[in-house]
Amino acid sequence: MGTSDPARVTLLVNPAAGHGVAHLMAPRIARRVAAALPDSQLRVVVSTSPADARALAQEAVEKGEYPREAGRRPDVLCVVGGDGTASVGFNACAGSSTQLAVIPVGTGNDFVRGVGAPRRPDHAVAALIAGHTRRIDLLVARGALAGDRHEKRVGSVVSTGYDAEVNLRVNDSAFDLGKLSYAWAVFSQARRFHPRHYAIRLDSGPVREVEAMIVAVGNAGYIGGGIRICPQADPTDGLLDVTLVRPVGLRTLVRLFPQLYSGNFTRIDEAETYRVRSVHLDGDWPCATADGETLGPAALDLGVDPGCVEIIVASAPRKAAGSGR
């Protein structure tokens, strides 16, 4: 696209993100964007609840729907918050002409890590001003989901086993110590966790019954502030990455903990990895999580929506055809 300013930039702020850091940063972000893009129509909105955030995001996207014009940058929805706020953003922008920017101020920031967007707030603001983008896929989850929903797009990973229970334990904790909270939960949950029974179908293959500690399905493969649960995940390949870990002992789990961040844990004999277009999951696991939040109980049908979001990144992609620019 050309160098003209976008018609609209909507800055959607989750005031609770980062223990209030998002709310404090918002005025400075707005001033910097307004100074760098003086002809843009900058609007700052502050959400009061998750439902309000979804409504504000959808309103911003609906106002930005128009045919692409040469020399005119599309509208931008810029969300300021953590992975949950990013989820609000890409669920609203999916399939639209509105670009998504994420200013990461959450605990994990796994979505931006996985899709190649800036991981520091100041770098993310600079990227928004520069306007380089890439198109990414999103995972589509269908089932009886939390919040009486039946479909939701996921940016990072759907977790269903030990990994999901660790996530839920962190969410229920009275203290938020960032990565330390996840490390603590990994060890404390291991003492009480027992393998779950799964019925799994990959693509159009047969249903497989298996006992497993982890069944994770990833679009971009990070959870827990940098754990590479699906280490080969690529959010631009039109595929889902599946990591399945059969039962292992507590000592093995403790030994493997450092390898969770490198992704090398998938090399053990009990681990299996697959690359597929669809996954059906059912079993006795209590609840799945996605993008750091509760997704819903079994059963789930998971697919992929290729290239459905244009996201702001730090620099122009090497392959221009993949950027949508």
TrEMBL record:
The keyword Lipid metabolism applies. Residues 4-145 form the DAGKc domain. The keyword Chloroplast does not apply. Keywords: ATP-binding, Kinase, Lipid biosynthesis, Lipid metabolism, Nucleotide-binding, Phospholipid biosynthesis, Phospholipid metabolism, Transferase. Its cofactor is Mg(2+). It comes from the Bacteria. One of its GO terms (molecular function) is ATP binding. One of its GO terms (cellular component) is plasma membrane. PROSITE patterns: DAGK. One of its GO terms (biological process) is phospholipid biosynthetic process. Pfam families: DAGK_cat, YegS_C. Belongs to the diacylglycerol/lipid kinase family. This is Diacylglycerol kinase (ATP). It comes from Propionibacterium cyclohexanicum.
